[in-house]
Amino acid sequence: MSAPRVRAETFATARLDLVPLRVEDAVEMAGVLADPALYVFIGGAPSAVEELRDRYERLVAGAPDRGVSWCNWVLRDRAEQCLVGTVQATVGAEGCAEIAWVVGTPWQGRGFASEAARGLVGWLRSRNVRTVVAHVHPEHRASAAVARAAGLAPTGETEDGETRWRAVLRP
Hints:
The chain has about 170 residues and is an alpha+beta fold. The chain has a single domain, classed as Aminopeptidase (3-Layer(aba) Sandwich). About 25% of the residues lie in helices and about 30% in strands. The chain contains 4 helices and 8 strands; from the N terminus they run E-E-H-H-E-E-E-H-E-H-E-E. It has an 8-stranded mixed sheet, sandwiched between helices. Helix 3 packs parallel to helix 4. The two termini are about 25 Å apart.
């Protein structure tokens, strides 16, 4: 099996530091992700700190398939010096990355998700990723706007009730 192709590294956008996820982030992130409204379109419910810590341990350990990279970041707002959300990319050996984002309710409406998603797509482009894909609930207008801001377009395909969005970074 091949080694993972990419590893999450710290990088910055205009207002955010995207910092590789650490298990210790579970304490602060439990508060960021505490609003049940965040889960209306994606399913699930807020996690207790211990549940989130367990999940983060699995994510930080990496994908069981060594040809796949799990890249996860927390979003730190430099002005407020606090975590505001996460972005993630699962990069396969074929050069396709599936991405996702979430920003806590108190920080929504400020453009953080779009800024982080654009930054993530740029970071992936610099790592020779060829295609970026996201899955967005068809009624989640805010998330569709984030996908569009990151350069993705709806494909017309659906998977598990979500619309598949795609951007080709390298032919």
